[in-house]
């Protein structure tokens, strides 16, 4: 039996179409005609020997075989892109100062920094996890080269909006704690110490809905927030990014709707060094990857 050799360009089209939710958009993104994209997908299905896409409303979703192929395609493309970056940047040297919020700490530090370090071992990265206001202060004062932050009223000269996330009411995953959210008493709220963007969104939404609330727990760290919510001390407002398994998004019609929260990447310089630009590219790729991509599309 002959072995199958997949075409990475075809796999890239497949992955891009799934992540964008449209193969017409994928054609535009990749600079191909829609007929060329259709031919690539047909070639991929012929190689697999079974359908990889199924109709869902006006769009297309992967079949079971397509889901399996999608996971492998992402891994192969990531390795290919990492190899290409390593070859191009074999002599890349320097020092990058990166700032990220706690929500993305685990994802960024393990995935992005690992990929970057393997491709560019001679570039040193100094990573800092901090609150939103602190990160904005550091990038504006020239103490960071890149900073990932939630959108706020504060802007910087060289920033780009990456994507939007839905904010949610989040509570402990235990039914016996749901009585705390019934509305009979002020809603116990777990939040960061002020100033906090999501805390302000939560209290403003509750005030507009005329729902009484009280601060039951404040913390300077996200781990403290998660621990307090898990213990049943109250509810909090965050996005689904990094949500621990022992917590859940609350589906309670008595709680008010929350706004969408944008995510931006700030650069210290308009035209950053090659190493900084490469790290930026990897961060964007990670945010649009499998887990994050699902969250972004849901938002």
TrEMBL record:
The keyword Chaperone does not apply. Keywords: DNA-binding, Transcription, Transcription regulation. Transmembrane segments: none annotated. Residues 6-63 form the HTH lysR-type domain. Signal peptide: none annotated. Belongs to the LysR transcriptional regulatory family. This is LysR family transcriptional regulator. It comes from Undibacterium umbellatum. The lineage of its organism: Bacteria, Pseudomonadati, Pseudomonadota, Betaproteobacteria, Burkholderiales.
């Amino acid at each position: 039996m002959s072995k199958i050799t997949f075409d990475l360009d075809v796999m890239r089209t497949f992955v891009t179409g799934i992540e964008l939710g449209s193969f017409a958009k994928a054609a535009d993104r990749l600079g191909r005609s829609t007929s060329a994209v259709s031919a690539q997908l047909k070639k991929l299905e012929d190689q697999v020997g079974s359908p990889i896409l199924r109709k869902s409303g006006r769009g297309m979703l992967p079949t079971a075989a397509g889901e399996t192929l999608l996971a492998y395609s992402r891994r192969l493309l990531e390795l290919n892109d990492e190899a290409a970056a390593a070859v191009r940047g074999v002599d890349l040297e320097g020092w990058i100062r990166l700032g990220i919020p706690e929500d993305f700490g685990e994802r960024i530090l393990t995935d992005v920094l690992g990929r970057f370090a393997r491709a560019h071992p001679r570039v040193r990265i100094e990573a800092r996890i901090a609150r939103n206001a602190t990160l904005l202060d550091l990038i504006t004062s020239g103490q960071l080269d890149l900073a990932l932050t939630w959108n706020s009223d504060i802007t910087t000269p060289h920033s780009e909006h990456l994507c939007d996330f839905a904010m949610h009411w989040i509570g402990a995953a235990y039914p016996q704690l749901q009585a705390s959210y019934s509305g009979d008493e002020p809603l116990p709220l777990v939040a960061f110490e002020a100033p906090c963007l999501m805390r302000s969104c939560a209290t403003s939404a509750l005030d507009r809905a005329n729902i009484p609330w009280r601060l039951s727990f404040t913390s300077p760290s996200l781990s403290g927030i998660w621990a307090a919510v898990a213990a049943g001390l109250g509810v909090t407002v965050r996005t689904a990014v990094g949500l621990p398994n022992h917590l859940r998004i609350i589906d309670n019609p008595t709680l008010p709707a929350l706004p969408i929260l944008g995510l931006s990447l700030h650069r210290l310089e308009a035209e950053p060094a090659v190493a900084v630009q490469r790290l930026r590219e990897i961060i964007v790729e990670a945010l649009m990857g499998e887990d994050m991509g699902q969250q972004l599309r849901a938002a």
